[in-house]
Amino acid sequence: MVYLTLLSYGGPVEYHRALGAALSFYAHYSGPEPVTMALFTDNPEFFRPYLRGVPVEYLLLPPERRLAMVGPDRYSFRVKICILQELMQRWPGADVLYLDSDTLVQRDPAPLLRDLQAGIAFMDQPEHTFAEAVVQYAARPDAAAPGRLIDLFGRQQFLVNGQWRQFTAGQKCWNSGVLGLPAAAAALLPDVLRLCDAFYAGSEWFTSEQLAFSVALPLRFPLRRADAYVYHYWSPAQKAWMDRELARLLPGPAAPPLTTGLTTRWVRRLVVEKLREGALYAARRGRPVPACKYALKAMVRTPFALTFVGRFIQALRLQPAL
Predict the structure, then answer these.
(1) Please, which residues have CB within 8 angstroms of residue 77's CB and are 6 or more apart in sequence?
(2) Which domain of life does the UniProt lineage start with (predicted)?
(3) pLDDT for residue 304
(4) Does a structural domain hold residue 285?
């Protein structure tokens, strides 16, 4: 049995994103076995009209329960690990495909689920090593976090899967917008939670939850990337565009079903939004070569987007001459 699992709370924008993720899954899925959705939410009644005909287990997550899950450091992403623990304890032997709400399934996930049931774990995709993050985060407000965690690795071992482990700066950091957890991962989740708590306490790195999964899952399972099946639109520009689309498509309970064609068009447009965002980001930081590369790729896909062209030229002009 596989449970498609989502976490959604806070209001209509978040609820619409979760609906987009869930309905895109069912639009593409062609497997022979039914997949039940486990939805942790503070408002089941919002979802019921949209999910008629979908097998759903609603798991109520009111604010007081969520507050208990964030722990003493008030780390919000800790909630993800806690709900996955609860789910796998509630249904022993279940395999779990967890999706962040800001995701869209872009192709039939049946092959992914077959591999998951065969004992292969999945995460969205690898992003960088811990050492590479020191450079990539250098201009960010949390620039010191990767270095603090690497220092912690040098001072401390961690008990994972029954053995003491020494992690290194060369290990990969994966994005956890998608998590495929074989049933046997239930025994590993207490270790993941302890790692998350130790990593956040020692570094205050906001991605500590996904870093804990990144180092723990490969110790027990083959780990593969899921981005060929699921598109994760985590950047602000992508979210803003997708929020507008979902608000337009889901104005009420009588909203039309999602189709594979629609989700494919959405993903194509989200790719363009990501390229545009990368072009403007690089231009504003005085990096014209990567800025132009991103902009060219975006303009090849949408050649008549004159508003973006104007914004991009302005961003380049605002940079001081070298």
Answers:
(1) 196, 206, 207, 208, 209, 210
(2) Bacteria
(3) 76
(4) yes
Structural domain count, the chain = 2
- Percent of the chain residues past pLDDT 90, beyond the cut: 75
Residue 57 has pLDDT above 80, yes or no: yes
Helices (H) and strands (E) in the chain, counts: 13, 11
**Are 152 and 22 contained in the same domain?**
yes
Give residue 302's domain range: 259-317
Which residues make Cβ contacts (< 8 Å) with residue 84, sequence separation at least 6?
Answer: 5, 96, 98, 179, 181, 189
Exposed/middle/buried for 217, CB within 10 Å: 0-12, 13-18, 19+?
A: buried
Judgement on whether residues 135 and 284 belong to the same structural domain of the protein: no
Residue 36 counted as domain residue: yes
- Please give the Cα distance from 64 to 240 (Å, whole number): 29
> Tens digit of pLDDT for each residue in 81-94?
999 999 999 999 99
What pLDDT is stored for residue 254 in this prediction?
Answer: 62
Q: Which of 127, 128, 84, 124 is nearest to 229 (CA)?
A: 124
* Lowest model confidence (mean pLDDT) among 124-133, 192-201, 265-274: 265-274
Residue reference for tokens 């800790």: 78
Entry pTM: 0.92
Contacts of 140 (CB under 8 A, 6+ apart): none
Residue 171 within any structural domain of the chain? yes
If pLDDT is split at 50, 70 and 90, which confidence band does 166 have? Answer: very high
Instruction: Based on the fold, state whether residues 205 and 278 are members of the same structural domain.
Output: no
Residue with the larger pLDDT of the pair 278 and 131: 131
Q: Which two tokens stand for residue 140?
A: 């960010």
